[in-house]
Specification:
Elements: E1 32-34, E2 53-58, H1 65-72, H2 75-80, E3 84-90, H3 93-102, E4 107-110, H4 112-121, E5 127-136, E6 138-142, E7 157-160, H5 166-177, E8 192-195, H6 201-207, E9 212-216, H7 219-225, E10 229-233, E11 244-251, H8 252-257, H9 259-278, H10 280-293, H11 301-309, E12 311-313, H12 319-331, H13 347-355
Amino acid sequence: MSAVRPLTTLRAIAVTAALPLLLTACGYGSAAKKDDDKANVAATGDKKLSASEVRIGYFPNLTHATALVGLQEGLIQKELGATAIKPQTFNAGPSEIEALNGGSLDIGFIGPSPAVNGYVKSKSSNLRIISGSASGGVKLVVNPDKIKTLDDLKGKKIATPQKGNTQDVAFLNWIAEKGWKVDPESGKGDVSVVRTDNKVTPDAFKQGSIDGAWVPEPTASKLVSDGASVLLDETDLWPGKKFVITNIIVSQKFLKEHPDVVEAVLAGTVKTNEWINANPDKAKASANAKLEADGGKPLDAKIIDPAWKNILVTDDPLATTLKTESDWAVKAKLIEQPDLAGIYDLTLLNKVLKAAGKPEVSDAGLGTK
């Protein structure tokens, strides 16, 4: 993968910066919910692997489309055979990392920031990124009556999901590139960065307490449906129009003890992404059905239709972009310079990709030795 080129002052930042503390992009649903009411996803076939079950975590969020569709359509379970899936939903990266570190979760779909933070905090001992999952799906949307150009953001109140999350760090980076000043802790400065939960942001926008937001899907499309306009789409700021928004991570202990199960899950996610890309409309409906099944409401067509088009599912972890995002977090003085060596282990993913006749993907020099 080619290195990510520096972003210019006016085009600056994009949305995901690998940051420290705090969660990932958006989440709809309870903080951590075991789907015990649905029990474990039914195991199928006679295929026997080294574990009777695998605990998989994800967000009820469109940027976790691989998990939503893979579970809804049974594509991951099919590869696992008699090994049952025990699903668990989260809406915060730190809580998912805590579950992984605490031994109650084996594999998780998660954003780059909490993955980096969890890896660094554990001194490289608790997780590995084993695959990509999604790219894109982040926009700067604003009140068109108050903001018509990027320069108009000065003096305005712009929401991000939480201090230090991927969108927050990216926005702080963009502000710095503009030559404006904002205190990263308080969010006060030439632009007021208002940390607002994605579930609350639409109401805050309607009430006029914020003038815009730097947010992932489907929050961005929800705001547009409420009268906001898109001022900046992050995908336009990256070479190849790709940047990591969701990874797949695994407990190092589980990876060591059950590599066959991890390989089967990856075989399922690769086939899921292939099915999504080949059947976008069916996949969109499947993801929406899973969102509803997970205890929420299905997204209205005026929200899910544009949101779905903004998300690209991908097996490639886009490792170079994660490094860039991490550098932004350091630049914002939200984390110390991290040592990311060994954060990736793409051995099993590349084995699966090769068997499927697909090109292998790169860890950008950040893989296990």
